[in-house]
Amino acid sequence: MTTAVLESRAGRRCHNMLNSLHAAHYFSPDLGEELSALGITHPKARNFAVRGAALGPVGPGTVAAVFYNYKYELVARHVPGVWESAAPGEILDARARAVDATLRRLLGEEILASREMAEAAQLALRATEACTRPARPLYSAHADLPVPEQPHMALFHAATLLREHRGDGHVALLTAAGLDGLEAVVTHTATGKGMTPKWVFATRGWSQEEWDAACERLRGRGLLDGDGELTEQGVALRAQIEADTDRLDRAPYEHLGAQGVARLTELGKAFAGAAVGAGAFPADLIGKD
């Protein structure tokens, strides 16, 4: 019997589908309600709270380091204050309740109770068996959390592990490429696949002036042209970073195998599509304008 070879971008495609499902809760009103009940009411504090809680009650320096593309001063306005409002364990419980409510609202009870959901959770958890801890702080912190029993929550947990595993490797490569946090965002936005400047300013703490200064630095390096588009050198750099990220993130998907990855991608695409169709994300989130 022959074993199908894992195509070079198969893991990336699978990750993109699972990450879309994972990211939906960041924009969910359910998350705001759960955190507000704990005294965390500022919209910009939510991400630091729920994504950083697995690290424990750390200071702003740690959060800024691992999140990478957020302005430190923004982080410091909310961390460690969020831990004074609620302990990390309480925040993680609130996140779980919000995710459960969000997925029920976006996908519906029938999908959550389906065999396909259980299958997706099983496949995603199998992929996480090959994730590695060294030099991956956000992944490693989340890997210490228990696996939920309900399939849709187990799928969210596995999607989170795969997301943070890839993200930790990606941050290392951005650093190696000499792109600071804002420059990384600017070049990603220039590909047409990143957040619009409006959402960068609203969520990452950077100003228009700082964005313009980052653009000027990138033009000086030959990565951005006068119109804010990537040059050939810029396109090549972003492509190389993504290819190297695929390489560092290959183990989970090789462990799952080509057929398993294809099936998980198919299921993830269906679930993510349903979530997007139900209005999971703002219409102006992704793009250049």
Automatic annotation (TrEMBL):
Highest taxon above the source species: Bacteria
InterPro entries according to UniProt: HTH_67
Pfam families: HTH_67
UniProt name for this protein: SalK
Native species: Streptomyces spinosisporus
